[in-house]
Amino acid sequence: MSGHSKWATIKHKKAAIDKVRGKTFAKLSRLLEVAAREGGGDVSVNAALRTVVSKAKAAQMTNDAIERAIKRGMGETDGKVYESVTYEAYAPGGVAMLIEILTDNRNRTAADVRIIFSKQGGSMAAPGAVGWQFSRKGVILVAKTVSEDDLMLVGLDHGLEDITADEEMWHVTCDPSQVWDLKSSLEAAKISVNSATTTMLSANTVEVTNPDEAKAILKIMHELDDNDDVQDVYANFDISEKLMEEVG
């Protein structure tokens, strides 16, 4: 599986812990504020906001909390102003990473991200050095209680491009503009969807076989995920299930 697919499954398993710590809601609040500020507070005309609201509801964020974040973004209540930044970096083993940031202090966040990579033997990259490898896709996770044939039967008429799998989940990819239509179509066919989102996938994957490199990569992913300013991390590593278990 690719870096995204591996990490999507890991994040799905640790979501309950993140909710307890407030990490998930804090990050979603920032995304809601920025989407509302940039495109307005009406989800019927603001596609970016509609996507984030769907994510927030899937994470069981309350309607009141969603509305408060949107109002902050619209300037109706006091709130911080967040800047959107994308950093590019290399993890050990030549693994490429894109890190999407929302921050109210760019210098602080840049220093924090740089330290995370330097501690694990990675390095920051120049703008454009990594980004060219990635393209935006819609990704839907579906439990393997449903067959691949059933997914194909429904999905091919609604934008499905590819299906891959790990031990527990199907990873269904599509054009990002069709992710919500595909999700709705699967659910209408009584296929339960675990998550649906847009993400950045790399056409090139780096197979990681060195346990020390694998451990360092996963440590970087964990530390970035724990940083409130980091919204998403995209990577092109491929670590086998056996090695994942070995390095914990």
Q: How would you concisely characterize the structure shown here?
A:
With 248 residues, the protein is an alpha+beta fold. It has nine helices and ten strands.
Description:
By secondary structure, this protein is an alpha+beta fold. The protein has three domains: about 10-75, Arc Repressor Mutant, subunit A (Orthogonal Bundle), CATH 1.10.10; about 85-130 and about 205-245, YebC, transcriptional regulation domain (Alpha-Beta Plaits), CATH 3.30.70; about 135-200, Alpha-Beta Plaits (2-Layer Sandwich), CATH 3.30.70. The chain has helices at about 5-20, 25-40, 45-60, 65-75, 105-120, 150-155, 180-190, 210-225, 240-245, and strands spanning about 85-90, 95-105, 125, 135-145, 160-165, 170-175, 195-200, 205-210, 230-235, 235-240. Strand 1 (about 85-90) and strand 2 form a beta hairpin. The protein is globular, with a radius of gyration of 18 Å.
CATH superfamily of the largest domain: YebC, transcriptional regulation domain
The averaged pLDDT comes out at 86
> How large is the share of residues in beta strands?
25-35%
**What name does CATH use for the topology of the largest domain?**
Alpha-Beta Plaits
Helices and strands, in order, run as HHHHEEHEEHEEHEEHEEH
Low-confidence stretches: 16-21
Number of helices: 9
CATH class of the largest domain: Alpha Beta
Number of domains: 3
As a percent range, the share of helical residues equals: 40-55%
Main-sheet strand order equals 3-1-2-9
The total beta strand count reads 10
- Tell me what the CATH architecture of the largest domain is: 2-Layer Sandwich
Q: Calculate the terminal CA-CA distance, rounded to whole Å.
A: 17 Å
Principal-axis shape equals: globular
Note the main sheet. 4 strands, antiparallel
What Rg, in angstroms, do the CA atoms define? 18 Å
